[in-house]
Structure formats: structure tokens, C-alpha cells
Amino acid sequence: MDQTLIESGTDGGAALMPHPDVAPSSGGIAAGVLMCVMSMCSIQFGSALSSPIINAYGPVGATWLRLVFASAALAIIVRPKIMSYSRSQWISVLALGTVSALMTASFFSAIARIPLGLAVAIDFLGPLLVATLGFGLSRQLLWPVFAGIGVLLLAYDGEEWIGNLPGILFACGAGVGWACYILLTKKVGKAFKGLEGLSMSLLVAAVVSTPFGFASAAPHLTASGLFEIAGLALLVPLLPYVLEMVALRRMPTSSFGILMSLEPAIAAVAGFVILLQPMTASQMFGTALVVTASIGATIFATKR
């Protein structure tokens, strides 16, 4: 994982805009590590807890509702100057917002069909490929191969292949979306001050998903359901945004990248604890391979 890889969290999680020229706080590394772990737990356990919402409103409906609440909350905090942006800025946030909406819908569609740990592992292949392909055709391409073997082990429970083809394809789509999201986030981060680009892209994502999500969710909306969705929107993605951005000011970006490599493992734990999705020994080994491949790519990137 190179500098571009650590600029985005899982599931379109935290769109990070690190400042590599700013030295991390020498006394805050431990706090930064804690914030990273809290962020990853928030993302993955929030995704697991979204299962009832996905079942009630459908993946597209759940995507729309989460984006509406998250974008509204962030817009209130950031107050983006909508009328002041240039044509190039609008193009960048329109592209990022559209990708964010499609990526999130694909990820929710995947976890509605296959175990969370498997979905996140497949999803993780996208940014891992972005990082390793940045080195050209070299031995570093072995990292995605190791991760791919890990995904295959995750997809087999010792008796049969788990999940289904649509779920696998949706997870692959989310991975492609995440890879594009990373590249677009880097561009938006340079074009806007602070969190304005992130806020605008979330607003665009909410608008893009409205024609599809409203039709899926509106007939089933209840007051208690809206309250629950609002809470989940704060859990994912707003809390991870704050935690990861503060963490990056307290610790080296290389350390941050290594920590974020634990995401597939945390997803597997969340799937087991919240969704009661068990894992065999070979699936645990597969998760370890994905994590190891990500850590290996990160360490190599820091030596470039």
C-alpha cells in the first residue's frame, strides 16, 4: 500500500487527505493506533449491524439512506461553499460521488449474499492492486497473488464453496469501485480545502442514489427505522472519518497503512460476532494471507 492506498478507508469508509509534510505527534502514536483500531471496528461492525437495514430496505435503499444521513450531517459541520467551486472541482466531486454511490451499493449487495469476511477480502483486492501495480511488473505483484489465494481459501468452508456468484461479482465490483475511489479521492483532496471535497462528494453520492434508493426504501420507512439508520450513518462513515484523520496527525502514514491491513481480519470477527458467520481453520488461514499480503505491500512501499 503506497500513499494513495492509505487515502481511503473500507467500504468508501474514510476518504483521507493526509498531510505527509506534517510530522506526526511524537507523544500521540499510541493514541493514533487506538483511533485506527476504533475506526476499523466502527466500519466493520457498522457494516455487520447494517444487515437488518439491508434486509428491510434492500442494498440500494440502505445505501441511499445511509448516504443521505451521512452527507447531511457532514454538510452541517463543514458548510461547503457550493456556489464558489470551479468547473474542474465540480467534475471531480461528481466523479467521486458517483463512484462512492456505486461502490457502497455494490458492497451492501455483496454482504447481503456472502459472508462479511469474504466480501471485505475480495473488496480489499482493489486497493491492493492499485498499490502494487504502481511498482510496475515486478515481484511485488506476488502480494495480490497471495491475497487471491487467501480469498479462495475464504470462499471454501471445507465442504463446499460458500456464497454465490452474484455476491462474488458484487464484491468484485466494490473492489473495482474502491480502487477508482482511491485515485479520485487523491484528486479531490488536492482540489478542495479541508473536508469540503469529501462533503460535496457525499452530497453527490446521496443525489445519485436517490432515484433507485428512494423507490426501494420509501415504502418501508418507519420512524424507528429512520432513527436506527441515522445512528448507523454516524457509526459508518462519519466516526471513521474523524478517527482516521486525527490518527494520521499522530502517527506515520506507513504505520497507519500497516494497521489498516487488519481490516479483513476485523471484518471476519464482526461477521462471526454479529452475524454468526463461523470460520474454519483454512478460512482463518486465508484471512491471514490477505492481511499478510497487505502488510507486505505496505512495508515495501515505505522502502521505496
UniProtKB/TrEMBL annotation:
Q: Which domain of life is it from?
A: Bacteria
Stretches assigned to coiled coil: none
Q: Which residues cross the membrane?
A: 27-45, 57-78, 90-108, 114-134, 168-185, 197-217, 223-243, 255-276, 282-301
Cellular-component GO terms for this entry:
membrane
* This protein's UniProt keywords: Membrane, Transmembrane, Transmembrane helix
Question: InterPro entries per the record?
Answer: EamA_dom, EmrE-like
Q: Which organism is it from?
A: Rhizobium paranaense
Q: What is this protein called?
A: Inner membrane transporter RhtA
Database matches in Pfam families: EamA
Domain named EamA is located at 166-295
